[in-house]
Amino acid sequence: MPMKPLEFDHRYGELDQVISAFLGQPADDEEGRSSEALQAYLRHTWHTRPWAVAIAEQQIREYSRNPPGRLRRRLAEFYPVPDVGLPESEIQDWLVRIADHLKQSVEDGAVPPPSPPRTHWEWRARFPEAAQFLGGWFSQDMPDEFPDHDSAVRDYVTTTDPQLVARTAGELRELRALGLDESQYTVALAELGMEVDPPAPLAPSAWLVRLAERLASSHAGVHGRPAEKSAGT
Length: 233
Description:
mainly alpha
């Protein structure tokens, strides 16, 4: 039978994070040179969960040493490596190279400098709530569900926990603070799931500023509302 979530995370949780960073990206890691996908994983993880890099190295190396046999495959008690563009015969050696890169990064204390995300995985890992908001409320179906952008924002605010709304506002501010040009912000919004244009005549950067302000003010309104007076006061 398939493993329970706790056991899966214990054995493969961080391995899965690393492999997810490679989906849609070339798995072209070589000795002495890591791929863009692995660099994205290291850049994000070092700045958010630095201890997880060593866990990933351990899990990947253990998996490469003990690939699942037929019994574990039949019982589904293993981690099925998704298609990363490599023949199955090359996966084991590739995993060893990944583990070596992770080990070297930890031993050298090689923390990648902050930079804008460079892969689809990194955009969504860095801005998870913004991706949920933009992808959920500004998909290609938005014009069929809402009369305009403001209506979509109002629906998000009224149906989402205020703490998540505040977190989204913070992520949008951080996104705007990257200092990208307008074409790069267009790419960023698309990577985060937005499939419609910002409302005219706003450019993507100005739309982000308006969104962040709107979400922040709605959160302040909820938590800054004075308490209602009790009867007889």
